[in-house]
């Protein structure tokens, strides 16, 4: 069935969320360069805007961040607080539309084409939502408003922090053409580098490539790149997206250099994973162990079991067997992670899959 109505999509993105929560709750941190995460070891999970001025960013090794900003203040993350604030924000979203698709604790898509308030302008809805978030949580949010998800996400980053941008249908293609491909959601650093090697630096360069060329070099993703270069994105806002995995990882204060210590490290990490399974009734069939060596090289080992992992003992046994495949150790180990995939609710374990039709 042809779709004639232009959709109204909002992407709401909290500004430096984890760091902003810490600055909100501790007045001494306000106006200071703050990093949530790693201290001497590990990585930065979030950086305040004061820290970003020095080049500090998320996923950066903490030693690098400290070198860039000697005055950087490291704060231990408080996920229980972040989750509660995220819940408060989600309640505000649901006052306007049931079509809310969370991407993480601090960002979500909203389809307000038909909204619960009967408001005609998506830009006014976004402005009202941002004001309510500030009033309830004391935190600022940025928003992007457009006719599809791709452009809405691009727009939300355009006037950060505490701003919003509208990209109407008649301006979508031109907006895309002027941006570097590295800014596109769905184009990661490695893909951007590959595009640059092929002479594709901007949206205009991408748009100039025929579909056959993009499919040749990027496979099935080539079709997506061909579409977004023209401002097209038919993906719908999908509420209650099922969780694909649950995991936990730890960076150790000292690198592990003995197999026994690595096995003990794996056992200590998986406690959070199994606690989540017990709390939610979620089970999984695929166990993955992540190993980061002292030189930051990462390897993973996975195994899919015939039956679901239904006890901590099974999870620990499988994880230990997987990590033993890297013995003898090539290098010292700085980080270990354990995750579960192929998730389902405990009571669904032996129920055969059924075809469903969304109406």
TrEMBL record:
Keyword Cytoplasm included in the entry's annotation: yes
Reaction(s) catalysed (UniProt annotation): DNA(n) + a 2'-deoxyribonucleoside 5'-triphosphate = DNA(n+1) + diphosphate
Quaternary assembly: Monomer.
Cofactor(s) the record lists: Mg(2+)
Domain of life: Bacteria
GO molecular function terms noted in the UniProt entry: DNA-directed DNA polymerase activity
Function: Poorly processive, error-prone DNA polymerase involved in untargeted mutagenesis. Copies undamaged DNA at stalled replication forks, which arise in vivo from mismatched or misaligned primer ends. These misaligned primers can be extended by PolIV. Exhibits no 3'-5' exonuclease (proofreading) activity. May be involved in translesional synthesis, in conjunction with the beta clamp from PolIII.
Pfam families associated with the record: IMS, IMS_C, IMS_HHH
Family of the protein in this entry: Belongs to the DNA polymerase type-Y family.
The protein, known as: DNA polymerase IV
PANTHER family: DNA POLYMERASE KAPPA (PTHR11076:SF33), DNA REPAIR POLYMERASE UMUC / TRANSFERASE FAMILY MEMBER (PTHR11076)
Residues annotated as site: Substrate discrimination: 18
Keywords of this entry: Cytoplasm, DNA damage, DNA repair, DNA replication, DNA-binding, DNA-directed DNA polymerase, Magnesium, Metal-binding, Mutator protein, Nucleotidyltransferase, Transferase
Active site residues per record: 107
Lineage of source species: Bacteria, Pseudomonadati, Pseudomonadota, Alphaproteobacteria, Hyphomicrobiales
Predominant location category: cytoplasm
Spans through the membrane: none
Gene3D superfamilies the record matches: 3.30.70.270, 3.40.1170.60, 5' to 3' exonuclease, C-terminal subdomain, DNA polymerase, Y-family, little finger domain
EC code(s) of this entry: 2.7.7.7
KW Nucleotidyltransferase (keyword) present: yes
Species assigned in the record: Reyranella aquatilis
Residues given in the record as Mg(2+) binding sites: 13, 106
UniProt remark on cofactor binding: Binds 2 magnesium ions per subunit.
UmuC domain residues: 9-188
Localization annotation: Cytoplasm
């Amino acid at each position: 069935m042809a779709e004639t109505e232009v959709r109204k999509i909002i992407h709401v993105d909290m500004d430096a969320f984890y760091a902003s929560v810490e600055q909100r709750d501790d007045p001494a941190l306000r106006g200071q360069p703050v990093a949530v995460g790693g201290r001497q070891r590990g990585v930065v999970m979030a950086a305040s805007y004061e820290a970003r001025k020095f080049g500090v960013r998320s996923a950066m090794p903490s030693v690098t961040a400290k070198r860039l900003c000697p005055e950087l203040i490291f704060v231990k993350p408080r996920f229980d607080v972040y989750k509660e604030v995220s819940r408060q924000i989600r309640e505000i979203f649901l006052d306007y539309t049931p079509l809310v698709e969370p991407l993480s604790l601090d960002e979500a898509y909203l389809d307000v084409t038909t909204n619960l308030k009967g408001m005609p302008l998506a830009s006014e809805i976004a402005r009202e939502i941002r004001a309510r978030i500030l009033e309830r949580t004391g935190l600022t949010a940025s928003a992007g408003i457009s006719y599809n998800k791709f452009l809405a996400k691009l727009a939300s980053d355009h006037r950060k922090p505490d701003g919003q941008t509208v990209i109407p249908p008649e301006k979508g293609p031109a907006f895309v053409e002027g941006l570097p491909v590295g800014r596109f959601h769905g184009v990661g650093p490695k893909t951007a580098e590959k595009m640059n090697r092929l002479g594709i630096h901007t949206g205009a360069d991408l748009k100039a490539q025929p579909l056959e060329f993009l499919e040749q070099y990027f496979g099935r993703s080539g079709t997506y790149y061909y579409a977004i270069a023209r401002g097209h994105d038919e993906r719908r806002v999908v509420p209650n997206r099922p969780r694909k995995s649950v995991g936990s990882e730890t960076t150790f204060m000292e690198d592990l250099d003995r197999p026994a210590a690595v096995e003990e490290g794996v056992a200590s990490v998986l406690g959070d994973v199994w606690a989540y399974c017990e709390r939610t009734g979620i089970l999984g069939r695929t166990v993955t162990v992540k190993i980061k060596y002292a030189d930051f090289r990462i390897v993973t080992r996975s195994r899919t079991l015939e039956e679901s992992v239904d006890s901590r003992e099974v999870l620990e046994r499988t994880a230990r067997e997987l990590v033993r495949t890297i013995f003898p150790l090539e290098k010292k180990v700085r980080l270990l992670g354990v995750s579960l995939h192929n998730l389902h609710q405990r009571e669904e374990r032996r129920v055969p899959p059924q075809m469903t039709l969304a109406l």
